[in-house]
Design goal:
Layout lengths: L7 H7 L5 H8 L4 E11 L3 H7 L7 E10 L2 E11 L18 H5 L5 E3 L3 E5 L4 H5 L9 E10 L2 E9 L1 H6 L4
Antiparallel strand pairs: 1-2, 2-3, 3-7, 4-6, 5-6, 6-7
């Protein structure tokens, strides 16, 4: 992927190494909030299971949210948490409600982000259609990485929505 293909306003968002939530909160001059679309045990996609090294039929706790500034959706996010990653103190990740995952995870000391994978997402991609993610008919950019929290993996995928990628004047 060529960096020149990225919208200028989006380049600095894709490589945030720590908490994207903290960066979004700082950029939102209104009310930052998390809209929970779903939190439940379900089967990860084949690709997600492979990336986490899970057997194909194993269930995981999957959290799907929209990160918003005021009423404007900025990021669509999906986190896949294997059962084995929700042991001990990490059990709390099943009960986040409207608290951002990043605020909880990056508050700890033992957090490592694996390499970021970037890709373009077509506006008609099944997952975006399923959750009625506002794409404005545009291809969007997404990033995905494994966060290791106390040595336990979580797969986090974030899709940067048009208002943040193209229309928002934030840095």
């Amino acid at each position: 992927m060529l960096q020149a293909e990225l919208p200028v306003k989006l380049k600095s968002w894709l490589d945030v190494p720590t908490s994207l939530t903290a960066r979004l909160k700082a950029a939102c001059h209104g009310q930052f909030n998390v809209q929970v679309l779903a939190e439940r045990w379900e089967r990860p996609t084949h690709e997600e299971a492979v990336r986490l090294g899970l057997p194909p039929a194993q269930l995981a706790w999957i959290r799907t949210v929209m990160l918003r500034c005021d009423d404007t959706p900025w990021v669509f996010a999906r986190t896949v948490m294997p059962h084995s990653s929700l042991q001990g103190r990490q059990r709390r990740l099943r009960h986040l409600g409207t608290r951002p995952l990043g605020s909880v995870v990056f508050a700890g000391k033992d957090v490592r982000r694996g390499p970021l994978e970037l890709r373009e997402v077509e506006p008609d991609e099944r997952m975006l259609k399923q959750w009625r993610v506002p794409t404005n008919g545009r291809r969007l950019w997404a990033r995905r990485s494994i966060l290791e929290v106390e040595g336990r993996p979580l797969l986090v995928m974030e899709v940067f929505l048009p208002e943040l990628a193209y229309g928002a004047p934030y840095a």
